[in-house]
Write a structure and sequence with these properties.
Elements (H helix, E strand, L loop, with lengths): L1 H19 L2 E6 L2 E5 L3 E9 L5 E9 L3 E3 L6 E8 L1 E3 L3 E2 L10 E8 L3 E14 L5 E13 L2
Antiparallel strand pairs: 1-2, 2-3, 3-4, 4-9, 5-10, 6-8, 6-10, 7-9, 10-11
Length: 145
């Protein structure tokens, strides 16, 4: 039990460290990117023909790392002004390995707004000798005008 508690403390410290060493920047009018040493997340939105807005959260592993699909990935939408979301929290069952990441549809209730998120990703070295839980947060402004 003591070994397990030590590993939990190490994992928590690594998660805190990675979130502190993360940067977020706007890439274009309909996208943004968050980056840490373990991974980067490209977030983009597109207006769909039926009027919905599609948000994609695509993960790219850091140098020398690969995506670990076995981890409990999650996406938590904290703030979503101007959007009606069917499910603001997505988990491993909604993870799309082909992206790799998450995709979600939202019904706009306004012409513009903001989406704040927290995403938990998992990456490992090629041999899986070392794995990382990476928590990233960001904010994306969207505008349908």
């Amino acid at each position: 039990m003591k070994k397990f508690n030590i590993w939990l403390k190490i994992a928590a410290a690594l998660a805190m460290w990675s979130s502190l060493n993360m940067t977020a920047r706007s890439v274009g009018s309909n996208q943004m990117k968050t980056t840490s040493k373990q991974a980067s997340i490209d977030v983009s939105w597109t207006k769909q023909p039926e009027g919905d807005v599609r948000f994609d959260f695509i993960t790219t592993p850091g140098k020398g790392l690969k995506i670990n699909t076995e981890g409990p990935w999650s996406l938590d939408i904290k703030e979503h002004s101007g959007l009606n979301l069917a499910k603001p929290k997505l988990g491993k069952s909604e993870f799309q390995e082909a992206l790799p990441g998450f995709s979600m549809l939202a019904k706009p209730t306004a012409k513009s707004g903001k989406l704040d998120f927290k995403m938990v990703v998992f990456v490992c070295t090629e041999s899986k000798a070392q794995c990382f839980r990476d928590v990233q947060q960001g904010s994306l402004a969207w505008n349908l005008n």
